[in-house]
């Protein structure tokens, strides 16, 4: 691992600190007043999006200094390393090649001296075959009935992406199919998913990179029992189960024919696996052609990210602004607020994407960071959020930068609803930036005592991202933009964005306590007093134990 100067010790960082002191108290009202062109200057139009970042607490000098920081961190070289299949996931010694999954250029992508594209294209062709058969009612269950219920069993990276994309692209979906998702180990999830279904018409997709994840395997076994109990035959598994995994052995052991297994590779990280075989449920829902449009969108943004100078590069600018607020303004959280109901899981998806990638505190050469890394990501669709948490965004003591995402044309043609929706989005961004001064409030004739309560400081930063319509391509563009934003921030913070040791810990701890919960009531445990008492309480109240 290469040694890099501590981020906070670089001259570029120090210049930003100096600059911050100068600009900290500048109000966006003045920035806009001083530069009538600002709305157009601080904006990038590319990949079917307009990315308006003018309502940020930056001036040209800020952006120049941030861009210099990116250069200092060798961003260009690091991007090339990812695209060239170098093993940039240092702690797992793996390449990071989700960009190859949606490479539509026809050109090879090399990893360890071999082109990965033939394997990828083969899997896409097999996904098409499965998806077409299901959509044409040609995939038959064990008793000969066509399947029409598709249940994806997976968790984390093997769930959140497909859920988000199926919801976001529901407008394009085949309504004769019923696509559901089960992730939680709480049996309520699977029980509710199958409660009104006929096993004869139900196909399970077991999505697990490792095929060892406790939640997924437990749910998959429950599903298998539901199917085999119904048919009275293990053979039914062949018609009712598909596996998406890198672990062929365990798929076979589970009883799934490897004919019904779609593979992916260790260079696809879980939370970056949506465009691998993990996206099968999405393809089934929206069809092959739409899925390819989705990949095209990703690819367009991948190219934009790789080839565009940084000062016009959407993911790079998103990332640098995030660093500016996170590290200089001390903002702890970041909100993603789509004004599009179909995108209601988008923030949840990037909550994992961002927080699992950049929620780290050790640099790539093994030292503890002395600066803040990834923010807390959260959000809900507008306008719902406006009636819930926007109060704090407008008048609370915390500054929460936010992305507002909206579209010009409604998918259902309801222009009246849509004009109101987007008027709200644009108005919110305006109010966040400019607020309302006490003079303005007084002019409105407000009672003197109420003036402070009705005053809005403003100066709250937002990016506004707009496009003409939510299409599969545009969703691909947007997702890839956020993925690359996360990558850039990981490089600047000098952390490994593609491992997740914090997740692994939970997997081990639960295994030990599970054994203890299932042990006899009087068996000793060797935990702290709180943990031991919780285990004892569970055992003593557990109905099965009582009946022993
Ligand atoms: C994602 C993480 C994690 C992972 C799940 C499921 O990047 O690694 O969310 O996707 O733990 O893992 P499996 O796909 O192996 O079941």
Describe the structure using short key phrases.
548 residues; alpha/beta; 6-stranded mixed beta sheet; 5-stranded parallel beta sheet; 24 helices; 48% helix; globular; binds glucose-6-phosphate
Written account of the structure:
The chain is α/β, with parallel strands linked by helices and 548 residues long. 48% of the residues lie in helices and 10% in strands. The chain has 24 helices and 13 strands. The chain has helices at 11-23, 28-34, 38-41, 60-72, 75-83, 98-101, 117-135, 160-168, 187-194, 214-231, 237-240, 248-254, 280-286, 288-307, 314-328, 346-358, 390-395, 415-434, 438-443, 451-454, 472-493, 501-518, 529-541, 543-546, and strands at residues 43-46, 49-52, 110-111, 114-115, 149-153, 178-182, 202-207, 241-245, 261-263, 333-338, 376-378, 402-407, 462-467. The strands form three sheets. The chain has a six-stranded mixed sheet, sandwiched between helices. A five-stranded parallel sheet has the order 6-5-7-8-9, sandwiched between helices. The protein is globular. The site of glucose-6-phosphate has 15 residues, from loops.
